[in-house]
Amino acid sequence: MYIVSACLAGVNCKYNGGHNADPHIKKLIEEGKAIPICPEQLGGLATPRRPAEIKGGTGSDVLIGKARVIDADGLDVTEAFVKGAQEVLKLARLAKANKAILKAKSPSCGCGFIYDGSFSGKLIEGNGVTAQILIDNGIEIEL
User: pLDDT tier at 113 (50, 70, 90 boundaries)?
Assistant: First the structure.
């Protein structure tokens, strides 16, 4: 079973109210092989919402309190991102999911590379908060 970013399934849950529909992801869900999730919504954030990036590190740093998730207006939304990641982990465990397919570059779902926190489009190596919590708990992220 897979956990997949809901925006990849065509759900309008991105920060700007849009989605990143992928036919492969939609097919996995239709076949009952995947469950769509949106960590930001599970963490209590609205859609649409201001874009957010991790400042001061990566998802790993957020989870240990060394970095924060800040939106484009300067509002600290770290608590919502951590709560959403924890809820995704609960759902993954309930579904007995052992793999995830997540939206690239996101401060929640990004795996391998995320935006650097400057809102300039620059990428750094690292994972988003949800991707990191899943990896830390033995769930493989497929790129």
Answer: very high
| Mean local confidence (pLDDT), 34-63 | 98
* Residues 13-35 pLDDT 10s: 999 999 999 999 999 999 999 99
- What's the whole-model pTM score? 0.97
In the structure encoding, which two tokens stand for residue 140, read together? 């493989």
Predicted confidence (pLDDT) at residue 122 exceeds the cutoff of 90: yes
Going by C-beta distance under 8 Å and a sequence separation of 6 or more, which residues neighbour residue 4? Answer: 25, 28, 29, 34, 35, 36, 37, 100, 101, 102
Which residue range(s) make up the domain with 135?
Answer: 2-142
- Reduced to 3 states (helix: H, G, I; strand: E, B; else coil), residue 133 is helix
Closest CA to 107 of 142, 75, 137, 132: 132
* DSSP 8-state secondary structure symbol assigned to residue 127: -
Give the number of domains in the chain.
1
For residue 45, which of 4, 89, 84, 92 has the smallest C-alpha distance? 84
Strands (E), 6-143: 34-37, 52-55, 68-71, 99-101, 113-115, 123-125, 140-142
Residues in the chain: 143
**Beta bridge partners of residue 99, listed in sequence order:** 2, 140
